[in-house]
Specification:
The structure is a homotrimer. By secondary structure, the first copy, chain A, is of the alpha/beta class. Helices cover about 10% and strands about 25% of the residues of chain A. In chain A, the strands form eight sheets. The first copy, chain A, has a ten-stranded parallel β-sheet, with no helix packed on it. At the A-B interface, helix 3 and helix 4 of A face strand 19, strand 20 and helix 4 of B.
Chain lengths: ~325, ~325, ~325
């Protein structure tokens, strides 16, 4: 257990544990962890048998509770949790109701659930799991250990290993691009690109990633979308980007590595957002964002400017005539 | 009819009606109602045979139209409407294409539609209807008179009676929580809790409710989500909360009874929103909200402060130099 | 090719081309176009064999590259693209796994995919394609050349020709309307109307259009919804309206012709938005919008007022005491 979590403890290394739990729910035999300082009172009162903390909080662990010291308690806890609750593996086998094209190529150990549809020439990497009702379009390529949950659909896409589509995720459909014709109708612009999902990309429930128009839409390795996120055509991201629920990125915006978009935030199209930028919840990016910057507000500005503007407005409106009511 | 709607009328109690309709669409034989004051002109012009109004508007009902007096005309109208258009009941029977686990337990009168999937050890209460393509995961428990519409999916969940999932609703998938590892990858935090949906909870089309991490996600009895709403892991609500379309609540926020979140509003995680609070459309809650308060704006503040700030800014910008153009 | 795109060129009319591509990706044999002025450097460097430009940019086309002159290069390019990549047609035939009601009426040339469900008395116009897992409810009418992509669902609806539902689109489910009863529960208001989709309407992936309550929800011909858009019950639009991703319109709002709602924008219910109005991304309409106006901000105001207010606030906060830090 210590090996798994890269932790240290003075306790008897043969001690056995029964499970994991939050500080306030743990009982005898459970391992827990201190998630944030404000839960120190819960640490005092916990009934857990062991708690993972940083060195700084070692002294706060109550007597009789084993202290496990780790640099990142959350990471250590996640790794211990995986010992007790290993991630589900594909259960190899093809459900008799699945419709699998004769020329689709399925690797060893693949699971295909009830009513799944796998199109012509699709390639499913070893040990991947295609959930009930998932639809894999023609020519789609999935790497190894991928997982499509119930009702996910994917077309016009190439995915690395360990890609996950949560229920109802939509990947590879046509982008939103058209031009007006003289008769008042709209003519769809060609949508011929694909979606490229890097290793370990995860797409949240009911989120959408459109295929590229003339080039491709690309999400870099480790990028994770929460639920109900929208990624327009030709967006590209680097590694490890984070899009919290209901964020939306318009077409052709280029995003660096480890960028965070908060919940319900958005970006206009054809922009550049530098690596390490953090876009606050509900903000709206309308121009390029330099690397490493925190932006907030709609329209989005450097966060400091936004906080100052809010404070200024509050001060002005408090002393305004309207305040005398 | 008067009994159903708890109304009063001086008209002949043996009068028969043919249907219901809006004031401006109603014809002979129809029952209608006055929805709001601004529709008084429509009341004057209506061809309905009877109109439900409060006592205050009794005198505004045109001659020849029967006035039905009720304290809440909308409620009375809804109850009369249910006489003419009863809510559809489950049509008992299992479609031959459905895949139902041998050890799932289905109550009497259950309807299971084409291509529905019901997992191992799931329990479906009496008179529930599982729509076409709906997927019920292993161990899920549904109460009586529940209804899953087309393409809804539910896993890791226990539901009370009369719960409704509208088309494409997603309940019980993994929450969005992970921690960075030293190599730059993300490690998913354990997501082991379930979703508990109280009696008569409704989840709108394509809305998402994530399972809890270590504790559970809980929506109290009568809570209703509109379409495309996001509820993060470990959120809990009391009774009768209302989440209008595209609202989003981040993880671990605790919400009281009869709280309203307007369309496209949001809340950060780990907050408390008191009973009876009303959060305006598009506002963003970033701190605790006391009971009974109206909040607005992003970041959200008491609504009065927001309105004052908007008025102040408008006044200042109107007399600013930029105004002389 | 010139005939298709209504363009002019001095080049040999028997020249043959191999395909289409963006300026920076094109090679020998490709036709490309100048999308916007800022891509003039890409025009200089392109390896395309021909480029579509307006007369103004004819001189900027490099030597050796054929200039095709067109009033709207994007439109001309879209039409040429359709020659090389024609829109997929329905592949006539009914997949053996589809469940089609005996009294549904399917026109000639209809394609029905695996696990599609077509309800009683539904009418599917000639040459329409019903994708895998799509669900068409009882009595639904689809025109000719319609296309439902994977997992789309539609009920209580009548559609014109060439309507497209992208993956996971939800059309015709119950609207979000209820009234409180004295016991604290909610009673659903009658939802008896349908959805009417005009010719060539497109509904984006995972977008939702609710059926009307007493009247109908109507989207006019050519209207296009991006992904994750919400249209409440009884909303009506004229021709050619545009709703960018994650926009949301509350119930009973009336929208004219060629109105644009930007990404993540919203409108309250029971309002009127005039023809040609443009609502900026993330703005929130809370009152009627006159025809032809640009609105922005939350709450939405004429865009000029919003820009002035933002400039005023920036100026005030820059010279405020807080600025001295």
């Amino acid at each position: 257990l210590l090996r798994a979590c890269d932790g240290e403890s003075a306790a008897d290394p043969t001690t056995m544990f029964a499970g994991i739990a939050a500080l306030d729910a743990a009982g005898a035999g459970d391992v827990s962890y201190l998630e944030r300082r404000r839960y120190l009172p819960r640490l005092k009162a916990t009934r857990a048998s062991a708690v993972i903390v940083t060195k700084d909080h070692a002294a706060a662990v109550p007597e009789g509770v084993i202290a496990i010291l780790a640099a990142q308690p959350a990471l250590a806890f996640a790794r211990i949790a995986a010992l007790f609750h290993p991630a589900p593996m594909a259960r190899p086998g093809l459900h008799p109701t699945a419709v699998i094209a004769a020329d689709a190529a399925l690797g060893p150990g693949v699971e295909v659930g009830p009513f799944a549809v796998i199109g012509a020439r699709a390639v499913i990497g070893a040990h991947s799991a295609i959930g009930p009702h998932a639809v894999v379009g023609e020519n789609v390529v999935l790497g190894e250990y991928c997982r499509l949950h119930a009702h996910a659909s994917i077309s016009h896409a190439i995915c690395g290993d360990r890609v996950v589509l949560h229920p109802g995720a939509r990947v590879g459909q046509e982008g939103y691009s058209f031009t007006p014709a003289p008769d008042g109708s709209y003519v769809t612009m060609p949508q011929l690109g694909i979606v490229r999902l890097g290793e370990a990309v995860e797409i949240g429930a009911n989120s959408c990633v459109d295929r590229g128009a003339l080039a491709d839409t690309v999400l870099g390795p480790g990028t994770r979308l929460d639920n109900l996120v929208q990624i327009g055509h030709n967006v590209t991201t680097g590694r490890g980007c984070v899009f919290v629920a209901q964020a939306g990125i318009s077409g052709s915006t280029t995003i660096g590595d480890y960028v965070t978009f908060g919940g319900q935030s958005g970006s206009a199209g054809h922009l550049e957002v530098g690596s390490g930028a953090r876009i606050a919840a509900q903000s709206g990016v309308i121009g390029d964002v330099p690397p490493g910057q925190d932006y907030a507000g709609s329209p989005a500005m450097p966060a400091k400017s936004v906080f100052r503007a809010i404070a200024t407005l509050r001060r002005l409106s408090e002393k305004s005539p309207g305040d005398k009511r």
